[in-house]
Specification:
The protein is built from eight helices and three strands. By secondary structure, it is of the alpha+beta class. One of its GO terms (molecular function) is NF-kappaB binding.
Length: 187
């Protein structure tokens, strides 16, 4: 991960660290590494989303372990210096700054850790489409609904999931959501 951190400019690494702190404080459901990776690539840096996700996991583990052990900024930096000699200087500066500003705010209660293992629904988008024809069938005129879900997994990584449904499947899906909403109204 240290080799890949060298590729990330300081401002993007700082943003990644800030998002990780927000996630650990349960202010956001996760870190959208795909979106951040796309912005880094747009700036001309060659990095893939898998490598960025690994970096996010390492930094998240670092911050959560430091919070659990109640480390001061200097203790964290000293520990980093002893454990990881290949960490670039700009990354250590960002970690020092972010931990100094927000480190004490990380909540590490057992209840919060147990809740985080489930993952969390972030967003849903849908669109209606019609397949007009294909190379094997001249006239389909087949309507379908595409659903795109954003889900934060237990490690805080936000992933996109998508699926298509026929209109009858979508009507059943919608009916089930209405039933859930009705039950939630009674709570």
């Amino acid at each position: 991960a240290a080799d890949k951190i060298k590729l990330i400019p300081q401002d993007f690494f700082a943003e990644l660290c800030e998002q990780i702190i927000q996630h650990l404080n349960h202010k956001i459901p996760g870190v959208d590494t795909a979106e951040l990776c796309q912005r880094i690539q747009t700036s001309g840096i060659e990095i893939n989303v898998g490598d960025l996700a690994k970096i996010a996991n390492v930094v998240s583990f670092l911050f959560s372990t430091a919070a659990r052990n109640n480390l001061s900024t200097e203790e964290l930096i000293t520990t980093l210096g002893n454990a990881v000699t290949a960490l670039p200087k700009h990354a250590v500066q960002v970690i020092r700054h972010v931990w100094n500003e927000h480190g004490k705010s990380i909540s590490v209660s057992e209840d919060a850790r147990n809740m985080a293992t489930l993952g969390q629904f972030v967003d849903i988008k849908w669109k209606l489409g019609v397949a007009m024809s294909s190379d094997t069938c001249r006239s389909l005129k087949y309507p379908y609904v595409t659903v795109m879900l954003k889900v934060a997994d237990s490690s805080g990584q936000i992933t996109d999931k998508s699926f298509e449904m026929t209109i009858p499947q979508f009507k059943n899906f919608f009916r089930q959501f209405k039933e859930m909403a009705a039950v939630l109204e009674t709570v």
